[in-house]
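Duplicate of earlier report; Thioredoxin domain-containing protein input re-posted below.
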Amino acid sequence: MSEKNREGKRTARQKLAAEREKQKSRDKRRRALIVGASVVGVLGLAAVVGVIAANTGKDDSEASGPVVAPSGAQGKDSLAIPVGKESAKSTLVIWEDFRCPACQAFELAYRDTIHELTDAGQLKVEYHLATIIDGNMGGTGSRKAANAAACAQDTGKFPAYHDVLFTNQPPEPDDAYADEGKLIDLAGKVDGLDTAAFQQCVKNGTHNSWVEKSNEAFRTGGFSGTPTVLLDGKNIYQDRSMTPAKLKQLVEDANK
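Output:
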């Protein structure tokens, strides 16, 4: 084989080797691009999943709406609904849940005495609303009933509607107060309460966030359950000797 032919074959092999190296480089760059794009896609998906997970884990307070206290609410964060004269020398603080059977039992036993003392200007009552039965039994009746009661407070009808709700309280496992129609029907038992404004307040859940804030105050307040009844700071519900007559005597003595 001539020198010229050998040189030609050597050049051809070199060109082929060079072309192979170029192809390898192109393949390497292509694989890098594919891997890079895959990484970006995975990271993007992770970011989306992270946002979804973060949003799922958050308490979506905006969805509940702003905290709107009922008209005339008093105390810290405006969580107390007052009944009675400011000048009264004794204050009764009551934490209640409209689905709570023990609360109903307390109300049926003591309400006449409490009304008598508030009407006489001797006692001021601060009602605080909780929703522990919703948490324990499930449902939304405690919250919706509390919202409806706050709506009644807006029109000055809280005491009467409060009594109607406890008088007509469904059995504890029955979440009947989750039905806004029932809450509106019960408003018909209170003169002047069943108005378009009241119905809208109930249906819109105007005070739902306020109710939730009140329940959070109960939950973090160190209370053992509902009802919690404090006369001038003393828990009288835990006093086994307490009766409506004894409550009346305590209040009258404080007003002497």
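Residues 30-63 have pLDDT under 50 and may be disordered.

Merging into the original ticket.
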